[in-house]
Amino acid sequence: GAEGSTLMSYFSKNQIQALKPKITFSTLRDLQCPVLQSNDLQGKPEESCSTEELFEWLGAVLNQVSLDNKSSSFLSSYCCPEPNTVVEKAFLCTITGFIIPEKIIQLLEQLCCYFSEPKLAYWLTLTVHGFADSPVSWRESEHGFHKGGENLFNFVIFRNLDYWLQMAVGAHDDCPP
Hints:
two-stranded antiparallel sheet, globular, RNase_P_Rpp40, ribonuclease P activity
């Protein structure tokens, strides 16, 4: 109708284009990583860490929080959960923008190919964040911003192609199906 054509002329007149996602790479050296076993979600003392411990650790790494629990640090006294191992190099790739589900599936498939050759990593993760103030969430509900606007899911993929799927939503949001 008339409203649609008015909108189209507005967009073409102002040359509004879809923003290309911004991609950044960084290398984390000598990173303490939790030891994980794909078949053990709860973790076992001195053998492996739990899914909750991994999720917390991942939050610290993605936010570049120090993991060494120095008493002089006023920012964080967090330290990597036990048992852990030091990884000489870890690669972090961040893609920021509007990304359609098909592209996320494509990324997952490409990440799984990483295990074929060379077999350097035991596991890797893919975290997908919705914007904190996004109007929509899973299912039919509006996204409740109230406090933190949590709205994310995380895949942990293991070398044998087992995987964990972790999801976090705000207290007022519907859980995903």
